[in-house]
Amino acid sequence: MQAPTGGYESERVINAGTNRWAVKPAVRVIWPIRPTWLLEFELGSWLFSDNDDFLGMTREQDPILSGEFHLIKRMRPGLWMSLDANFYGVGRSTVGAEERADLQRNSRIGATLVVPFKQKHALRFSFSTGIVTESGGDFESVTVSYVFAWR
Known about the structure:
single chain, mainly beta, 4-stranded antiparallel sheet
């Protein structure tokens, strides 16, 4: 859930905040294919409230449908890798009575590797690149992050 936080000035097109609520209900399923292989799938949708103060008009946005797929290989406790894919679609907006030409349709693929290095600690390495980019930036992403497991 995203609350309407951040600075918002109704007379500006670009703002730090969006002046609207957003929520993403989703369903995630994990299917064990073999003892060390998993297939994970998530289907969800971002739902948005209206921004009633967008340049003196109301900005509405259709839901953005989303899906994620992960093929996961577990090698030993805490050590795993995955092939990842996602997609986002629909989400056209309307300002006042004008429907915008801003249909969302983006897809990415990538890979993730998680390497434990001490009990409850791990490093996560990931890479992703765009397949289809119709809104936002078309970019490649390389991430290294630290993971701590609380249990």
